[in-house]
């Protein structure tokens, strides 16, 4: 999948509708804690940091330093300023960090945008201290049944061709092996009715929705509209989305 261009409007849309409230990320916090085992002095590189949601979360959850590496100036401008967060221009194939300078690497919804995953794996190996984890938050082909966009827009599943096996193969060339694969839930405080209201903005910010035809998108909108009507007050309940945490060492 080609990386979508993140201009100012797209970055603003991403910040508005793609970020998950912190209290909906409790399962991710505990999963990262188990695999990273953070302690004073821990440094994590958030590669493809986007608008900085997880850079801020990681820094605040564990009181650690985070280096947010992001190629898009528009996205970098959205990252909140924090004394524990360093923001750098770069991408997975050219990370502006010293050899063996970080204790863990975090990649959230980014590896499907990386054109040369093998080269990125070697670059990540270069900056990572021995034994540190690579933690990948991702929806993988064949494992999308509980991804919310796929529920309403089933055609989005066909835009995802990266499998767990392919990701592991690419990182194996750089000496990484599979450590864990954990389906992990996240909760959106916005209701299904809110989701319906956000769909036009979400389409701008979500690469899988942007790849749909107008007809496919409108059909999905109608599915959501019908569900909101059928569920009534239940449509106001929070929604749960599942993605995988793939950990490599």
What does this structure look like?
The chain has 249 residues and is an alpha/beta fold. It is 39% helix and 20% strand. It is built from ten helices and seven strands. It has helices at residues 8-17, 26-36, 53-62, 73-76, 117-127, 148-152, 164-172, 192-205, 207-210, 214-231, and strands spanning 43-47, 65-70, 85-89, 104-108, 134-138, 178-191, 238-248. It has a seven-stranded mixed sheet with strand order 3-2-1-4-5-7-6. Strand 4, helix 5 (117-127) and strand 5 (134-138) form a beta-alpha-beta unit. Helix 1 runs antiparallel to helix 8 (192-205) and helix 5 (117-127) crosses helix 7 (164-172). The two termini are 25 Å apart. The mean pLDDT is 94.
Strand content: 15-25%
Write the element-wise H/E pattern from the N-terminal end onward. Answer: HHEHEHEEHEHHEHHHE
The secondary structure category is alpha/beta
Number of helices: 10
Q: How much helix is in the residues? A: 25-40%
Q: Quick recap of the structure?
A:
The protein is α/β, with parallel strands linked by helices and 249 residues long. 39% of the residues lie in helices and 20% in strands. Helix 5 (117-127) links the parallel strand 4 (104-108) and strand 5 (134-138).
Structure characteristics:
seven-stranded mixed sheet, alpha/beta
Any chance you could write out the topology, listing elements then pairs?
Blueprint (H helix, E strand, L loop, with lengths): L7 H10 L8 H11 L6 E5 L5 H10 L2 E6 L2 H4 L8 E5 L14 E5 L8 H11 L6 E5 L9 H5 L11 H9 L5 E14 H14 L1 H4 L3 H18 L6 E11 L1
Helix pairs in contact: 1-8, 5-7, 8-10
